[in-house]
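so my prof wants the structure for this chain in the tokens format not the other one, which i didnt know existed until like an hour ago. anyway here's the sequence
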Amino acid sequence: MLWIPIDRSSAIPLNRQVYQQIREKILNGELQAGVRLASTRELSTELNVSRNVILEAYDQLLAEGFLVAQRGSGTFVAEGASLTRTDPSHEIQKVDHKYAENGIINFRSGIPALDLFPRKIWAKLSHQLWNDSESTNLGYDLPEGRLELRQTLAYYLKRTRGVHCHPEQIIITSGATQAMTLVSRLLLSPNDIAIMEDPITNDIQTIFTSSGATIYPIPVDEDGMKTALLPENIEPKFIFLTPSHQFPLGGTLPIQRRIQLVQYARNQHCYLIEDDYDSEFRYEGLPISSLQGLDPEHVLYIGSFSKILSPALRIGYIVLPTHLIEKCRQLKWFTDLHTPSLEQLILARFINEGYLERHIGKMKKFYKRQRDFLIQCLHKAFSTNIKILGYSTGMHLVAEFKDIHFSQEILLKIEQFGVKVYPVENHAIAKGNYHNRIIIGYGHLKQEEIEEGVERLLQALNSIVK
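here's what i got, hopefully its the right format
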């Protein structure tokens, strides 16, 4: 007789419990091919359940091929229904969630202050939209995104970032990562060359090299990419850069270098990929105008709302030269048909009714206070042994230490003191130039966490030096 434990307090129906347990016994070979099962009447009596429970479980197993019924003989385990299982437990790696956990103060960059997300306003607009929306808004949509949002973005970007475009040039994406993936598929083939500023986010390097392309790095200084080092003897497909706020070092590209880049792109018949990273949160002066505004037919402009509002929205966009629009629309359609429509409509209302600019103004004041407090803590803790870079924009800064080499061993030691920092060297293409610099993000932390985190970092480094 089969031993099948029945849990009457479980939310799983009894017939499903019986089915699942017999199925598992057959798959793992405990019930081998040809074995005759108890009749439905016998098993229902043994388990003290209705005969219908067993009939429904047997019927499902018969339908899936686990059992065969022989008239007059009974029900048997079918041939070929067992499967040798592999144990994947040894292959499972711990996921690094990168947010604060287990008491660790995590100075990860790029995380906004999510507790300040304008939930009530967003909920109000969402409620209005669901009440007002036509049923057609619930169906499939265009791959390039909702016209309402594209029209809104075209006007907003022109007014705030100097981007010159028509709504037809905008493709709405599921965040900046998808935008860059589309650019990679749009422009790169195996053995192509892409020029990139160095250092640059490691994830972006991976996106572009996964196409089989070769990365040609150009180093950066306090003003961004060193455009004087652009090579004349190669034919790149594009140059990728973050001109408004270089990640991770924080420089802002001056107009002279921007013009050099435009002239280079024209001469080499390539494109400029402008990732407008953190441009809204500039604390000294007005936001810098976009590179795209200088030459819309040579620049692909990428932005998102992940850091302005929330990564959970998964809304980004590409502004394309006109001759790339149709091909990019096709690629977007092949990728995911379209970005969720209702969130696009909510965002369009959020921008049109002035909430976005009010939120950005509020967050700029908040992040500036966070930045100033972090700088104060760092100077207090490390005095003249530290140089602070890239603090004029964004939600992170770079700290350069004297006589500290942030090796993996030292980083693990720091983490043992309950704080996590990120070396610039991890994002370098040409290795070996940034071992004494770390990235310190502050947007998502409370001031008491910032102060405690800096104190733990001091204790960790003091223990290493001793």
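also thought this was worth mentioning. DSSP finds 13 helices and 16 strands in the chain.
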